[in-house]
Write a structure and sequence with these properties.
With about 850 residues, this protein is an all-alpha fold. The chain contains 35 helices and two strands. About 70% of the residues lie in helices and about 0% in strands.
Length: about 850
């Protein structure tokens, strides 16, 4: 048999068609806009499963024909075996085994691609083909990214500004960062960190005689546009990864300059990369906060998620919690001092933390062994790198650079569940392990006997068939629920079809909490709007039953507990409401409305002392609520003065305990000033709030330096004839609300008296943003809480700037933790 004929026969045995389908799936989900969200929506989730299932068939086809598996070699197969063991142990012992199987099956597809791809990359020409393929795919990603970002984000922001020119570009505005095509700026940055070193390699290796689409100028343009795209993400992790790349590049440049006297162009390129990285304002702020030794708002989010991950792993170190368990366990392990920051998420924003939380010690062993092997073979490069041709030596350097930069980013985010990023990571890992084998002249293993190979293939096909049988009802449920949610969007909504499809989905996937939670919320919404008393009772009863089912499947969901508790309260079941509110408050103690609901339920139970404590805790965390008109009427009116007195005294103690130069201390002192002013005690002249508070208590003492908004308000107060017009110039709410404010001012002696006794109320509802994403289902609507906050209308509009932001005040929440636990323990003892 000639060499050419042998090559043709080998090609037939490599599963080329399935390999191409794998590449198509990878490219499709890389370029699909918002792909990471769509992979949890119907019908894209089916395509996602198919894209991850094809590599398994490719693996089995290659095994069947070649009767062997090309190992990664040099210890990397041990990492894979350890990962498989981790999946088996964590999936078997997980409290949520179905979620673990769902994501474990997806991970198996990723693992499977390593081996047939590694066998196919046996020649330098093929390795260069996949590098070039990846280069062109990166170019498309960059064009799609910039096109979508400019077209759907920047252009609308420009046209929305009154000037019609460039908008004020605030990098803290999430919506202005480059999200395309993956759906989030951190994903875009992660992909580019992996991809751009290969683009740089293509630019270096390009020859002058090649056509323009393979020329050095073309690849340099792609590289520069890629850096521009990376900058537009304003990703801190992306900037940090790019800055990390500068270190080995700088060392390499110094080494080459010392030995070969290279030009200063390399130095300028390094300086340019550093400038691009440090031009990221969010990264600079985080580095400053880190060097100053404080958490700050820039680092608090990931600090909280890291603590949750540590607690999850520490609770089950030898088994982990299973893949996909983070959103189900998250609020159980979330620290109480976290306030409203990082309230509920589906991933822990750090790859090692994610592995520790979901796979325990096995996951950390996989991480450390994998990183250790990469470092080991990087340090022992003379054993394999010198055996490669020059182009492949440069490829190895580019791969190490990409994995190093992305590795730094991976400390601040978890992205390997994204098909585009995970796929590119696997491609680069396979390329690198192939180069390490090739440089040492390692040969493929001996072929298995046909019966053994076919037996293994048969076992693999059997496992696939079993999994397909398990997955089929899940996808049928997904399709059914999607059809039901679409029925709600019809005019008028088709309620009967919605209920039929959602209950059918629940039957097909009885372990999925998303369906009963959506049913419970939708039934509750419909019940509260129903005019017929009997229909309302039936709808609300069904809502309670469904939310109870959701809690059985997801027992650490504050959303489920709090909304179920409000339904209990509306139904007059105050005992159940109190216990359920207590569980909600235990999970997210800073969530507005939970301690209020607990207080109302305790009033219904005639537990007046405990009710006072609960209402006090509500106002301690949301002091603006003490200004609410709800305190003027039953059932809260009798509790107003005791709660106000208790809250003021507690803040006085906190002001003594927490220094005013700390963020939490400044918050406490400002709130204490406002509480005293609300009771008629004016602040001293040197207080920053005096310019606001003194004129509101006595309009005749308005200072010349009063804020512009306050000056207009005081003019409106003094001139009833022009009151409406003057207030309209500073009003951003509805005309009806403005009319309420104007009418309520009539006959009031001072603005403060008006605010305390006659200001109108406003009802505020809260949407559960991110409910679908965190539930890993985005087909249904975003729920709103059954809790309706009753606030003081002018206080939350005209004078909202008086009240400090209470979103994240860790020292306050730490100080209140003991009070909360004592109250919840007392509620638990109620018979």
């Amino acid at each position: 048999m000639t060499a050419r004929h042998w090559g043709e026969q080998a090609a037939k045995q490599e599963g080329i068609l399935l390999g191409l389908l794998t590449a198509v799936g990878y490219a499709f989900f890389t370029l699909l806009p918002d792909s990471h969200s769509l992979m949890v929506a119907w019908p894209w989730v089916l395509l996602w499963q198919a894209a991850l299932g094809v590599p398994l068939l490719w693996f089995l086809q290659v095994l069947a024909y070649q009767r062997r598996v090309q190992p990664l070699g040099n210890g990397f197969d041990g990492v894979v075996l350890l990962l498989l063991l981790a999946l088996a142990i964590s999936g078997t012992l997980s409290a949520f085994p179905n979620q673990a199987r769902w994501y474990g099956w997806a991970l198996l597809g990723g693992i499977a691609v390593l081996y047939p791809l590694g066998a196919w990359l046996r020649t330098p020409e093929r390795r260069w083909q996949i590098v070039r393929f990846q280069g062109y795919l990166t170019a498309l990603v960059i064009l799609v990214s910039l096109g979508l970002w400019v077209g759907t984000t920047i252009a609308p922001a420009i046209f929305a500004t009154p000037q019609g020119l460039t908008p004020h570009f605030n990098v803290d505005t999430l919506e202005l960062r480059n999200w395309a095509p993956f759906g989030h700026q951190n994903y875009v940055a992660g992909y580019l960190l992996l991809a751009l070193p290969l683009v740089g390699l293509l630019a270096i290796e390009a020859e002058a005689t090649q056509p323009w689409w393979r020329s050095r100028r073309f690849w340099m343009a792609v590289l520069l546009l890629g850096l521009v795209t990376l900058y537009t993400t304003f990703s801190r992790g992306g900037g940090l990864g790019l800055l990390a790349m500068v270190i080995p590049l700088g060392v390499g440049w110094i080494w080459h300059y010392r030995r070969q006297r290279r030009s200063w162009w390399g130095f300028l390129a390094l300086a340019g990369l550093a400038v691009v990285a440090l031009a990221n304002e969010r990264l600079r702020r985080s580095l400053v906060a880190l060097f100053q030794g404080g958490q700050g708002s820039e680092l608090a989010y990931r600090w909280i998620t890291s603590i949750v991950g540590w607690r999850m792993g520490a609770a089950h170190p030898f088994s982990g919690n299973g893949l996909g368990s983070v959103p189900l366990w998250y609020q159980y392990y979330r620290p109480g001092w976290a306030g409203r920051e990082a309230e509920w998420i589906y991933q822990l924003h750090s790859t090692p933390v994610q592995l520790w939380a979901e796979l325990g010690l096995w996951g950390m062993a996989v991480f450390l062994l994998g990183v250790g092997l990469l470092v080991y073979w990087g340090m022992r490069y003379r054993r394999w790198w010198l055996g490669l041709e020059q182009r492949e030596q440069r490829l190895a350097i580019a791969l190490y650079l990409a994995l190093w930069g992305y590795g730094v980013l991976s400390l601040t985010d978890f992205q390997l569940d994204n098909v585009g990023i995970g796929g590119l990571f696997l491609i680069e890992l396979t390329l690198l392990t192939t180069l390490i084998r090739t440089g040492q002249g390692q040969t493929p293993p001996e072929r298995l006997q046909a019966r053994w190979a076919l037996s293994l293939v048969g076992v693999g096909l059997g496992i696939i068939l079993v999994m397909v049988g398990w997955l089929t009802p899940i996808h049928r449920a997904w399709a059914s629920s999607s059809e039901g949610f679409l029925a709600l969007l019809e005019t008028p909504p088709d309620w009967n079809r919605f209920t039929e499809k959602l209950f059918h989905a629940q039957e097909l996937a009885p372990w999925e909490p998303y369906y009963p939670l959506q049913l419970g919320w939708n039934y509750g919404q419909r019940g509260m709007m129903a005019d017929n008393p009997e229909a309302r009772t039936n709808l609300l009863h069904t809502a309670m039953v469904q939310l109870e089912k959701g809690i059985e499947l997801s027992p650490y969901s504050e959303f489920a507990y709090s909304n179920l508790a409000w339904l209990y309260w509306r139904d007059g079941n105050f005992g159940a409401a109190a216990q359920t509110f207590a569980k909600a408050a235990q999970l997210v103690p800073a969530k507005r409305g939970n301690f209020l609901g607990l207080g109302l339920a305790l009033i219904g139970e005639n537990q007046l002392q405990l009710a006072t404590q609960a209402l006090t805790l509500e106002v301690l965390r949301y002091p603006l609520f003490i200004t609410s008109p709800a305190w003027r009427v039953a059932p809260l009116a009798p509790f107003y003065q005791p709660v106000l007195t208790a809250v003021t005294e507690r803040y006085r103690q906190l002001a003594q305990d927490i220094s005013s130069d700390r963020p939490s201390g400044a918050y406490v002192h400002q709130v204490l000033t406002l509480l005293r002013w609300w009771q008629g005690e004016l602040p001293p002249d040197n207080n920053s709030l005096t310019a606001w508070l003194q004129p509101l208590a006595n309009p005749k003492k308005a200072a010349s330096n009063a804020p512009a908004t306050l000056q207009i308000f005081l003019k409106a107060w003094d001139d009833p004839n022009r009151r409406r017009d003057l207030l309209a110039s500073i009003w951003s709410g509805s005309p009806e609300q403005l009319e309420q404010i104007v009418r309520s001012m009539a006959g009031q002696p001072t603005p403060l008296a008006w605010l305390r006794s006659a200001a109108p109320a406003v009802a505020i509802t809260y949407t559960r943003a991110g409910f679908g994403v965190n539930s890993r289902h985005i087909d249904g609507p975003q729920p709103t809480d059954f809790f309706i906050a009753i606030d003081n209308l002018p206080m939350v509009t005209l004078f909202a700037s008086l009240w400090p932001d209470s979103y994240f005040v860790p020292e306050l929440d730490q100080a209140l933790e003991g009070d909360r636990q004592r109250l919840l323990a007392a509620v638990d003892q109620i018979p």
